[in-house]
Amino acid sequence: MFLPYYGNFPLRPCRTVAPTTRSPRRRRHENDDGMSTAEYAIGTIAAAAFAAVLYAVVTGDSIVSGLTSLVERALSVSF
User: Fold this and answer.
1) Staple 35 to which of 14, 21, 31, 39, CB 3.0 to 4.6 Å?
2) Is residue 67 assigned to a domain?
3) Is the pLDDT of residue 20 over 80?
């Protein structure tokens, strides 16, 4: 319990009361708890498109040959 002091005399113990109304900033975002179905669909399509582009880049001839030469060079190093 918190006893606030005024000068040398303690005041009555005070009790914290939650506000009954929400602030305008909080009220504005109150109904935005998560993604809607349309947002999930757009996010899924974007993730699939990104995966397709990444797959095309990684399976390209230059990347495959570069990774192959890197692995061969790493395996041929003598310790």
Assistant:
1) 39
2) yes
3) no
Residue 51 lies in a domain: yes
Using alpha carbons only, give the angle 40, 52, 73 rounded to the nearest 5 degrees.
Answer: 135
Contacts of 78 (CB under 8 A, 6+ apart): none
* 54: its two tokens: 């990444």
Asked whether residue 1 carries a pLDDT value surpassing 60, the answer given is: no
- Fill in the amino acid letter for 40: Y
Within-domain flag for 75: yes
Torsion-angle region of 53 (φ positive above 0: left; ψ -120 to 50: alpha; else: beta): alpha
Q: What percent of the chain has pLDDT over 90?
A: 42
